Amino acid sequence: CGFEVRILPKIRITQEAFSNTKDGVWKLQNEQTKEETAIAFLRVDDEHMKVFENRVRQILMSSGSTTFTKIVNKWNTALI
C-alpha cells in the first residue's frame, strides 16, 4: 500500500503534543460535539515517495509546451 495511518486517542497524548500539529498530522473531532477526540498520523514509506517523485518528474519532462491545465490534470491523476 505504501502508507500507514495511526490514530491515537486524545487520552493517550500529552496536551503539548496534541496542540503541536505538523505535516501529515490531523486533529480528529466528534462531528456532533465538535470535541477533538484523537490525532491521525500519516506516514508514507520512502519507496513509494520515490515512485511518486519519478511520476511527477515524468509528467514534467513529457509536458513540453503543453498547457498548464493539462499538466495540472496529469498531476491530479498522479495524486489519485
From TrEMBL:
GO terms for molecular function: pre-mRNA intronic binding; U1 snRNA binding; U2 snRNA binding; U5 snRNA binding; U6 snRNA binding. It comes from the Eukaryota. Pfam families: U5_2-snRNA_bdg. One of its GO terms (biological process) is spliceosomal tri-snRNP complex assembly. InterPro entries: PRP8, Prp8_U5-snRNA-bd, Prp8_U5-snRNA-bd_sf, RNaseH-like_sf. SUPFAM superfamilies: Ribonuclease H-like (SSF53098). Residues 49-80 form the Pre-mRNA-processing-splicing factor 8 U5-snRNA-binding domain. One of its GO terms (cellular component) is U5 snRNP. This is Pre-mRNA-processing-splicing factor 8 U5-snRNA-binding domain-containing protein.
